[in-house]
Amino acid sequence: MPGSRDDLTRLRIALTAFFALDGFVFAGWVVRIPAIKEQTGASASALGLALLGVSAGAVVTMTLTGRLVRRYGSHPVTVACAVLLCLSIALPPLTHSALVLGAVLLVFGSAYGGINVAFNSAAVDLVAVLRRPIMPSFHAAFSLGGMVGAGLGGLVAGSLSPTRHLLGLTLIGLLVTLVAGRALLRCEPAVPPDRPAAGDDGSPRRLDRRTRRLVLTFGLIALCTAYGEGAMADWGALHLEQDLDASPGLAAAGYSCFALAMTVGRLTGTTLLERLGRTTTVVAGGTTAVAGMLLGSLAPSVWAALFGFAVTGLGLANIFPVAVERAGALGGPSGVATASTLGYGGMLLGPPAIGFMADWFSLPAALTSVAVLAAVAVLVAVATRRAAAAG
Questions:
Q1: What is the CA angle 200-202-204, rounded to 5?
Q2: In whole angstroms, what is the distance from residue 134 CA to residue 126 CA?
Q3: DSSP character string of 245-287
Q4: In sequence order, what are the residues at sequence separation of 6 or more whose Cβ sits closer than 8 angstroms to the Cβ of residue 270?
Q5: Is residue 161 situated within a structural domain?
Q6: Residue 112 is part of a domain; what is its CATH number?
Q7: How far is residue 195's CA from residue 208's CA, in Å, rounded to a whole number?
Q8: pLDDT higher than 60, residue 64
């Protein structure tokens, strides 16, 4: 493991760069979804099916990435997935049908799922070594990258085609990967001193039934809240533009408001967790997100919806990082992989579900499902605390 505080600091910086890159690239894609929807001529349900390519690629890759991380280490897997992510982001604007769009999004989703499991595994190990709840700071970098990516997308939406815009993201992403990847590969992985050894073949240690149940519970909390992140990313701009007649640039600002509020919440997350504890932070955040999303989806004006999006981002900010960190503390790499798969599965399966509900009902009504699942996360967190107290 890293042998000094300076080594741990360098590792933290390198991981932070990859979290930020992931958010930057992902946001660059989502703010161009309205233009690519128009380019392909897809209906809401057809677009939902195409977005399912991201979900399928990510979930399948996540189940395999845990094994790759145990065999090759989280650092090389992070770098390899980052390269694939940056290359695949240039493909969606080259498509002209929902079917082909879904196929290229399968590749993009595979890279996205892989990098998220890999760098979350590395981050959970570093949190355990440092013995401080710094997980929200990594996810703050993801949110900050998303805010910058969405803001840049809004600025260039009227002047650059999706093809030129996303190709530019490829070049920027590869440059960041070159610099941060060299630093990450030079760092020794952080290994918690109290972690039980894995098998010789890299197989994970076997968890008892209670621990597996807790890991799945934290994964469910992650799923409920990440669903909201995915919905905001893929459908927030379309809601503002289609239902509230916002301009393309102002519509892109919707995700920027959400990402900015989430960044602020996560930057203060370590202090919040140290003062309030994990359960209180999750309950307060989930309740805030319920109120914010009801306003954001049902408000009759653009500015009220933007405010609702910001409140939602603030509420959801620390729930997902807490869930993944707790699952990793309980189950090691297997816990991280399980919670990440469920969590990011919610993020990536949510948008297609929103698409189908939008066709059946309306997009504003479909977006209220984000508030429903945030409420479920609150109830699960409260029930888990009571069960732990009773046990």
A1: 110
A2: 9
A3: ---HHHHHHHHHHHHHHHHHHHHTHHHHHHHH-HHHHHHHHHH
A4: 132, 133, 134, 136, 137
A5: yes
A6: 1.20.1250.20
A7: 15
A8: yes
DSSP summary character for residue 190: P
Domain that holds residue 22: 5-191+205-390
Residue 232 lies in a domain: yes
Q: What are phi and psi of 157, to 5 degrees?
A: -60, -35
Q: What is the CB-side half-sphere exposure of residue 274 using CA atoms within 13 A? A: 11
In a domain, 197, yes or no: no
**Both tokens assigned to 151:** 């803001």
Q: CB–CB of 41/89 below 8 Å?
A: no
Q: Where are the alpha helices (DSSP H) in the chain?
A: 5-30, 33-40, 44-72, 74-88, 98-130, 135-156, 162-186, 209-243, 248-267, 269-276, 278-298, 302-316, 319-360, 363-390
6 pLDDT higher than 80: no
124 SS3 class: helix
User: Quick check: 373 and 227 in contact, CB under 8 A?
Assistant: yes
Q: How far apart are the first and last CA of the chain?
A: 36
What digits encode the pLDDT tens for the residues 221-262? 999 999 998 888 788 989 999 999 888 888 878 877 887 898
Look up residue 227 and give its two tokens. 């669903």
Alpha-carbon distance of 313 to 105, in angstroms, equals 25
Q: Extract the tokens encoding 241.
A: 């533009």
**Looking at the domain assignment, is residue 318 inside a domain?**
yes
Predicted local distance difference test score (pLDDT) of residue 284: 95
Domain count, the chain: 1
**Rounded to two decimals, what is the model's pTM?**
0.82
Residue carrying structure tokens 């993944």: 324
**Sign of the CA dihedral 156, 160, 161, 167?**
negative
Distances 252 to 44, 95, 238, 257 between C-alpha atoms, Å: 18, 22, 9, 9
Residue 52 CB-density burial (10 A; 0-12 exposed, 13-18 middle, 19+ buried): buried
Angle between helices 74-88 and 162-186 (to 10 degrees): 170
Please choose, from the candidates 338, 329, 332, 342, the residue with its C-alpha nearest in 3D space to the C-alpha of residue 230: 342
Residues in the chain: 391
Closest to 95 in 3D by CA, of 60, 53, 58: 53
DSSP class of residue 132? Answer: S
